[in-house]
Amino acid sequence: MKISWGTSLVLAIFSFIAFIMFFVITMITDKAYSHDLVVEEYYKNELTFQEQLDKTKNASLLSENIQLEQTSEGLVINFPQELEFASIKGNVFLYRPSNKQLDSEIPLSLSSHQLLVPDSRFIDGRWNIIIDWEYKGEKFYFKEDILY
Questions:
Q1: Is 27 in the same domain as 55?
Q2: How many structural domains are present in the chain?
Q3: Engineered SS bond to 76: which of 69, 82, 131, 138, CB 3.0-4.6 Å?
């Protein structure tokens, strides 16, 4: 059976459309290709960027900044020893860029200069640790990316 050029052209166009539709449906439904923004309110957070820069500058003026240490129990956050730990208020944000369901926020309530984030809160991979804190009316900001 011989296929004419017109029939061949229609079959080629139909095959191309079928391939593109298969590709689009696969990309939409497959969870491996699901990507979210790092934060839900991206544009709102962008408007406060100058405030964040000011807080980061305040943190750099301290004689000692926050230190992160990975131990077998979890992640230990060491606050500056020169500060009175009872006056430190704020939040620790644990962001997982690849999965927003793993994001969490921990309010700061210190009983010493160290805060332990348990190992059970982390899975292997990249984490963004953001600490937005205040000490006696002065605001500070600390951000570090870690591989856990």
A1: no
A2: 2
A3: 69
Q: What angle do CA 4, 10, 11 make, to 5 degrees?
A: 90
pLDDT tens figures, 21-36:
999 998 888 877 666 6
DSSP H or E segment with residue 10:
helix 5-29
- The yes-or-no verdict on residue 127 having pLDDT over 80 is yes
Alpha carbon of 19 to those of 7, 8, 11: distances in Å?
18, 16, 12
Q: How far apart are CA 147 and CA 142, in angstroms?
A: 17
3-state secondary structure at position 132: strand
Same domain flag for 70 and 143: yes
Can you tell me the distance from the alpha carbon of 52 to that of 31, in angstroms, rounded to the nearest whole number?
33
The two tokens of residue 114 are 């160290």
Torsion, Cα of 51, 52, 54, 60 (10° steps) = 170
Nearest alpha carbon to residue 89 among 136, 49, 51, 128: 136
Q: What is the mean pLDDT of residues 77-92?
A: 90
Instruction: Quote the pLDDT of residue 38.
Output: 58
Place of tokens 């999965």: 99
- Parent domain of 115: 42-147
